[in-house]
Automatic annotation (TrEMBL), chains A, B:
Keywords: DNA-binding. Pfam families: TetR_C_24, TetR_N. This is Transcriptional regulator, TetR family. GO terms for molecular function: DNA-binding transcription factor activity; transcription cis-regulatory region binding. It comes from Marinobacter antarcticus.
Length: 210, 210
């Protein structure tokens, strides 16, 4: 029977959807997408599993939304760092360093965002978000070339080299098989790791020994 | 009813399995994993779709095998280039250049291997093979550090920066949305593209302007 959705019903629906998203997010933060089973999310959210499918068409859609939420947060942080004062090289270095440090501080979520094998929908999001990061870096590289602190180069292509280098170099350190051995919380000494990655990236861009 | 498999039956079975693998490989080369539907593979191989599942547990297993076959070929090529004469920087540059050029010459397969969203089994293989590439690069970087042509650094970490930079920078140029615009066969001028990627990689390693 068709009926008009009241404002109150809309609000309640939106709140339920948000609660499901938050509980899924929490699961992924704790153990990656592989531990975010629908039954577990439903339990955490205090709803029936069927309710979840009233808000999300599929588990894949739910995961894709969580991926977007969490990744957009990181993209925003990179944009913020790149908008700070300083020449382009300094800003790029800060943005890359912050990205790596944030990942190492939240290694489970970071690994899930960067490398966890999930499903094709999440992989599609990964490709899209890597482009988003690259767009930000590209803009900064262009500014650096204009400022003269970065040699002339194909800014688009170099930006993707940056995205690849920083993401792939973090996969090993973040991977669950290494977790427990040396995570940020335990040793609190990720400086050499981060320094090596940043040096590679900035040298790659500038050709100047760091 | 249990029976003993004769040598002839074993051979026939192996031949059928290989034929299925070859036809799947051909599909992926032509249009990526997304076009390698089981019905199409069966048609090409001249078998019933059910036969495919007698040789492979699932489509995912079949795809993972094709991924391994095709990627191992590229890993071997990198190993070969790294084993050639010359100092480590020269060998790394050759290996990276050859990798990029081979990818751009077979863009559909290369994109499928590097970036096509497939399924978690293929993603697992991707992670494993990226490690295989990194292991090869790591060894060459160590040799370069000993030879003195590469500054002292965390060879393991730098090797993953190389893997990430070269793979990610090829995603855009290889992606189907760009295909037809400028693929290797049409313009035959991928030199500036490859040069930019190689420059970034070698500068990243050596900190010396190219």
């Amino acid at each position: 029977m068709a009926y008009r959705e009241t404002e109150k019903m809309r609000q309640r629906k939106a709140a339920a959807r948000q609660r499901i998203a938050e509980c899924t997010y929490q699961c992924v933060t704790e153990g990656g997408f592989r531990t975010a089973k629908i039954t577990r999310v439903a339990q955490l959210a205090g709803v029936a599993t069927g309710t979840i499918y009233r808000h999300y068409e599929s588990k894949e859609d739910l995961f894709a939304e969580i991926f977007r939420l969490a990744t957009q947060r990181e993209v925003d942080k990179v944009a913020e760092a790149l908008a700070a004062p300083g020449n382009a090289t300094v800003r790029l270095e800060k943005a890359l360093r912050q990205f790596a440090e944030r990942a190492l501080k939240g290694p489970v979520m970071a690994w899930s965002l960067i490398a966890e094998p999930v499903d094709p929908k999440v992989e599609e999001e990964r490709l899209a978000y890597r482009k988003a990061y690259a767009n930000l870096f590209e803009q900064a590289i262009r500014e650096g070339i204009e400022e003269g602190c970065i040699p002339d180069q194909d800014a688009r292509l170099s930006s993707t080299c940056l995205v690849g280098a920083i993401a792939e170099s973090l996969v090993g350190p973040l991977s669950p098989s290494q977790a427990g051995q040396e995570t940020a919380d335990e040793t609190d000494n990720n400086d050499p790791l981060v320094n090596t990655i940043i040096r590679f990236c900035i040298q790659g861009l500038t050709g100047t020994r760091r």
